[in-house]
Amino acid sequence: MSELKKEIIRKSIHFIGLAYVPAYVYLGKEILIIGITAILTFSAVFEIFRLRYGILSFVVREYEKEKIGAYIYFGLATLIVTAVFPMEACFAAILISIVGDGIGGIVKRLEFQHSGALATMIMVILPFALSLIFINPVPALSACIAGALVEKVERVGRYYIQDNLSVPLVAAAVYHSVNYILP
Question: Would you place residue 99 in the very low, low, confident or very high pLDDT band (cuts 50, 70, 90)?
Answer without folding.
Answer: confident
